[in-house]
Amino acid sequence: MRPEQLSVESLQAFVAVVDTGAFSAAAERLHLTQPAISKRIHSLEATLERPLFERQGRRVRPTEVAERLLPEAREILARLRAIEQQIADLDTVVRGRIRLATSHHIALHRLPDPLAALRGRYPELELELAFMDSEAGIQAVLHGDADLALATLPESLPDGIEARTVWTDELVPMIARTQAIRTPGDTLARLRDWPAILPPVDSTTRRRIEQALATAELHPAAAQESPYLEVIRMMIAAGLGIGFLPRDMATDDLAVLDWPGPPVVRSLGWVRHAARYRSRALQAVIEELEGATQT
Fold it and tell me: Which residues, in sequence order, are CB contacts of 82 under 8 Å at separation 6+?
């Protein structure tokens, strides 16, 4: 192996290909051409004198060598970003690039005002948003692929992760208003009889809902699933079933049902790697998010 030929660009390309599973998707993520990605991967393979990917049509699968290289590559890239931020922090102006992983729901309902405030207050601050579910966002922070994640906070977090609640959602059962008028009944009866529309089974929000239903001895199977609460709201409004949504998502075409048990709540907040450098730019983002909860 010739370590002097390792480059940041080749490691960035390598991590992007692993994460996306395809050279074309990696090129799109890094705003490069596919031949440029291929050239960087071939250069890294030549340096290591080992293949990094097995080609399977348009998809690729990491080899054992790639799996061993991956955590080291992520750590190298994270350290380089920390160095860049520390140098940027020598100035009095808040500047730098913050990679923010966020769920679609938080981006739509919680971020517009804080993002506008950050843009006005810190014009040299760059925010790079990546949209993903909460579980993936936490993993992105853990692996060094995001500086901060805005996520639904689980009951337990991976080691080395720091988190703080910024917002709280109360989840309440809802059905289409037209269905509520035509089919009177109490909430528990409806939950027993109606198709359930729920988030994915491996999500924190789904676990919160299932815990609440279990206390009422209800274990409905999901007739429909979606990781997007806005899609669930649409399906409920169309009369396709019953589901739990944040109370502030109720609209005129939805009926909010009384929930007989303790409130069903979920915590939304920021997540970061506790061991990574907390730059001035990152601190500015965190302070703006936490200040937004007061408005």
Answer: 276, 277, 279
pTM above 0.70, yes or no: yes
Collapsed DSSP state (helix, strand, coil) of residue 283: helix
Q: What share of the chain is helix, strand, coil (3-state, %, to 5)?
A: 45, 25, 30
Across the chain, mean pLDDT equals 89
The rounded distance, in Å, linking the Cα atoms of 64 and 44 is 15
Give backbone dihedrals phi and psi of 67, rounded to 5 degrees, phi first.
Answer: -65, -35
User: What residues does 182 pair with on adjacent strands?
Assistant: none
Calpha distance 49→47 (Å, rounded): 5
pLDDT of residue 273: 93
pLDDT for 184 equals 67
Beta strands in 112-210 (DSSP E): 125-131, 148-152, 161-176, 196-198
Q: What DSSP state is assigned to residue 247?
A: G
Element at 256 (helix H, strand E): strand 254-256
Rounded mean pLDDT, 22-27? 90
Whole-number Cα distances in Å, 236 to 133, 139, 186, 225, 227: 21, 31, 17, 12, 14
Rg of the chain over CA atoms, in angstroms? 23
Rounded Cα distance between 183 and 192, Å, is 13
**207, 198 Cβ separation under 8 angstroms:** no
